[in-house]
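Technical note accompanying the year-one report. For the benefit of new consortium partners, we illustrate the data format agreed upon in the data management plan: each record pairs a sequence with a structure-token string. No post-processing was applied to the example shown here.
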Amino acid sequence: MTEAQQPQTTGLRDRAPRRSPGEPCWVSLMVHDIAGIQHFYESLFGWEFAPGPEQLGPYVRALVGGHDVAGIGQLPPDRHLPVAWTPYLATEDTNRTAETIRLCGGTVGVGPLDAGEAGRLALASDTAGAVFGIWQPAEGLGTAVSGVAGAPAWNELLTRETESVVKFYQAVFGYEVEAEVSADFDYLTLHVGSRPVASLHGVGQSLPRDRGAHWMTFFEVDEPDEAAALAADLGGQILQPPRDAAHGRVVTIADPEGAAFTLIRSAHRRPRTAL
């Protein structure tokens, strides 16, 4: 989140809240070398890992202080797909939302399918081609903490322009939209009720040709500059150098398999909490 309000945080010891439809509730990464990527994120964020739903194949849940924050899975050997962090948006009915996605011009690429007792999910892409997931929770309510180092802080869609794609998300999830008032800045904040939950950023010709429209996940850290240097030492790559933005200090990096994400020290972040 570079130009939007900081989403409400929850206490470290709180149980994962049940999200309203449209709220980001989980982030997941599918990789080729799950052991190697676990080592990277364990070293970068201090994540611990626990087994995930068996129905998803080799899959682990990343933990901060014993609380779920993200998931990492293993791609089948014959699937040569781009590696990217994918946000999941909450729904009360995966089947119905998947059908709505199709009717609104999006594509459902995987599912809907059950993830054991954790819930029901599907993977889709919007009208600009950006991939996202939908998640109907059962026992697995998703990311349990925010506002602490190692936890997701925000999700932002990077696309060529926001005017057409925002209609898709409004039709599927019923978002209210707040626009940044600027002649040369194409930026929208998505709200569920009165709460900002995600953003859309139209970057025009700056959109990477090799990636197209895509969602960017922001992870909270104590020191973005130091974390970026550590990521590079661990085999990652700094894509955009550390810089001060409206709501914190940020740096965009890629992990050893090329998955891009942004580190942020939020301006409104409370003092570091002992785990």
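Partners are asked to follow this layout when depositing records. The radius of gyration is 17 Å.
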